[in-house]
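Researcher: Sequence of Alpha-catulin follows. Predict its structure.
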Amino acid sequence: MATSPCSSSGVSSSSSSGLGADAGLEIRTRSVEQTLVPLVSQITTLINHKDKPKRSDKTLQAIQRVGQAVSLAVGRFVTVGEAIANENRELKEEMSVACIEARRAGETIAQLTDVANLDHPESDSHITIFTDKTGVVKAARLLLSSVTKVLVLADRIVIKQIITSRNKVLATMEQLEKVSSFQEFVQIFSQFGNEMVEFAHLTGDRQNDLKDEKKKARMAASRAVLEKCTMMLLTASKTCLRHPDCESARINKDGVFHRMRLALEQVIEIVTDSRPNGENEMAPISIYSGIREFKNKVEGLRENLYFLSKENLSTMLEVILEHTEDFTDSAYTSHEHREHILELSKQAKMELEQLVSVWMQAQNQKTKDLMEDLEVAILKTCQCMNELKREVHSAATSLAADLLKYHTDHMVLKALKITGVEGNLEAVAEYTCKLSEQKEQLVEMCRLLRHVSGTEPLEITCIHAEDTFQVTGPQIISAAETLALHPSSKIAKENLEVFCEAWESQLSDMSMLLREINDVFEGRRGEKRVYLSLPRPGKHNANLKTLKPVKLDTEEQAKIAKLGLELHLLTSDVDSETQKWEDQENEIVQHGQGMSSMAYSMYLFTRGEGLLKTTQDLFHQAEIFATEGTKLASALHAFSDQVHDDDKPLLLLEAEKLISMCKQLQITVKASVQGKSATFTKVDACILKTRNMMTLLCQLLPLCCKLLRKNKAGNGCLKPAPPWKEDRIRTGTNSHTPEWKAETLGIKSLENHVANMTFLESK
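Model: Prediction complete. Tokens:
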């Protein structure tokens, strides 16, 4: 999570200029961050301008107009901030200070761009945009900091709305718990339904706005609980009212209310970023995350032999192997999987011992032979961990697939409904025992799946599923017991139906979750998208069809490991550049992201991971990569028609370079080779050419982004600030979306004027 506006989202470029906002401000939502990114980018460009000795009167006057426009835009922004402060007295003092700072910054920028000071800087004591870079940086920093403060303070109002909405829901829930008549219940539940709808809208918008994917997943889980529990609360409460002396009905109803309160509390924890009694959240470490961290440390030895201790590595492996006991100790793990996991655990210890031995020798004497031995030891250790990862994945997913298939007929639930209507208490007791067994199986399945889920959001989904089975199982039992005691009760029958549907729904969700977990394992989604264009055997390219699939051995993987790491770094750079584009649907961005995803899958191949299992897979991926590059070149040609004449030659030159590289890669891919050595040479050439194309892409994306902004800035104009509407804050309707913050707070016009200033300076 970002701790300042200068976050990894693209604002970080400001740090090199000394530009930054208040470090105490924490940007938790995309709307605030996305509003700030263009502003920071433009201000950074402004303060990094290149001074030119000759400045025409026309340029000076244009700069003055822009400076005055920025000051006016800031003034409107401040007016809105002050209106927000008046509506929310608890924020008035902080908001007022931020508004004063923003106004001061706007006035300073107007002074810096005053034509009198610009024309004769030496005759005036005032700093100008051309004479004193420190003054410019100071004014820019003050402007950014104050704007950020106002946005973050406005965001607090959204949080306040959610808390207020939650409090309304809780108060109405308390009334629902105490009602004693149907008429009163219907009246209060109608109010409760409206309040839940409002709460759902507010939290849904907030969920979509959160930057932290882990928090987003937790919010989704809590909202899912509230959605399902609303219907449960209705039928459970009606059943309790119909049968007030029934203990199982009361237990059933109390369970629903308790679960809803926990979910409401979790939503507030996420929104306010706090936990009761100040305790920190300690999520259990999964085997996957442990292996990922362990491998990163091991591979880091290639660059630095001294950055961690052998004890540190040994401890990390011990923790991973302790978690594998969840599999080996489970009654549901097959004998074959258990034996393989134990065998691989033993092998991992041996590989680490060998690695540590070579590592310690290399620290004392860096000979070529020792470094080669170290590389082999690193690869063997990582390969062993990959095999362990595959084994636990296979154990968890095969168990899940078997259980989900076995329970698809819902025979136990059907039997509970039938025996409940018959009033057969003995049969109900028998089937509740079977349901309890089923619940234990599914809970264990969720625990094992969490270890192999691959991403934090999926881990959270597994934990949520485990909780759902743990809670819903006993609730079905209490609902079935109530029906058995009152077999003619329609409401008791309806209540059992609702809880059974929740169970069936969760089983259906588990099937989808299992597919997602398998997708992550195969490299089809997760922390980074991987392009899906793998050939089916015997289809696609005729040249590839005749190739015999080859897997690289340890030595060959060692040779391309460095090249693979370079490719990995380039994909990160490209992803960073594409995120800076305001229009994510732009054709250039789309092709750039596609190429980055394919390059990443090729990087995974160099590690022996991902979807590309053989050299044939790699060659096909390289061919698709070259095709995507050709499409990008076409998009660049189309874009060149929109840019100014001065910039077009450079863009066309880069596009021609890309076309040439694409052709070279296609020739390499289609070249026929025989023998292991020749195949490896071809692999090396494909990855090398892919790396070169990614290097060019890293240069192309910022160039196009700059030209696009420059083109827009040249057509920029002053937009009138929208009128302040009191009900925007009060009602909460889309009040915290990026558009609301940008338009209502007058940020759009501010961006336009700073962009105009940047454009004038670059001419």
